Amino acid sequence: MDPAKLEAFVNKAIGDLGSALTAALVVIGDKLGLYKAMAGAGPLTSAELAQRTGTNERSVREWLAGQAAAGYLDYDEVSGRYSLSEEHAVALTDENSPACVLGGFQGMGAAIKAGPKVLDAFRTGKGVGWDQHDPDLFLGTERFFRPGYNAHLVTEWIPALDGVKAKLEAGGSVADVGCGHGASTIIMARAFPRSSFVGFDYHAPSIEKARERAREAGVADRVKFEVASAKSFRGSYDLIAFFDCLHDMGDPVGAAAHVRQALGKDGTWLLVEPMAGDHVHENLHPLGRLFYSVSTLVCTQASLAQEVGAALGAQAGEARLRDVLSKGGFTRIRRATQTPFNMVLEARP
User: Fold this and answer.
1) pTM
2) Whose CA is closest to 194, among 174, 175, 210?
3) Which residues of the chain have pLDDT under 50?
4) Domains along the chain?
């Protein structure tokens, strides 16, 4: 045995333990408004931050030190004050920025709460349904994906599809399947006021939240949300969109076949999935670590809890996705565009 290798691994494990605990502190900072109180405020003491946020000074003092040790905050040892840099403030307070990470921490904190259920699912193979998770997973997922959709969906992804932008500008019909709280649906509805949109999700509480979001956004007149699965939604559409959800489905081939039937003449399927290589060794990096981990706790378990249980996983890769689409009856498939986090496929019958 190599003692140096053992020591290096123990140090790595300690770092990972610190990361897990830091994630919990980020959720606390988010929910108590600690980051927002520090953004643009300059250096603060723990007493000043506690007064600004109506929190306990002693708890805030420990939180500040932990966040400084993690590199989230800056600490001045002379004055004993802490500050949040402008760059870090964007990631920790600006939910309109694609750099915002708050939703990820909220969602993953909720996913970890399902640990006992996932542990049992490892033994039984029965999976853990999306609906069996803590509600913070649904809220966190929306917050995590929405900034990226805001940044790319209308300006890059839809324009990359053949003829779709013109259809939507003229007035087309769109189905957003697996819409969750409706973030992607509402973004498209705002951009294309002449088109009509229907968001579908099997999770009824999410559909209720999506309807609320549509009313708040002022688009309820042209956006509907209905409870339906990817194999049961009704209607015929010019564009059908799946955002980061196909890999969660128990029967993705069945979903693909249903999409093919629901597409109107010369219709398009927009499929957005996490960026991944086709082989495990291509995904052994920080982003792959994140996606494989959440897939273990959430995505794979969600699929196993459904019929078929194909369990594509969040790192399925383009080759496997193309195979699913081909088996569903699609013959024209191309990678329309991509981001460091997303693979955007265009499929036509």
Assistant:
1) 0.94
2) 174
3) none
4) 3-93 (1.10.10.10), 102-348 (3.40.50.150)
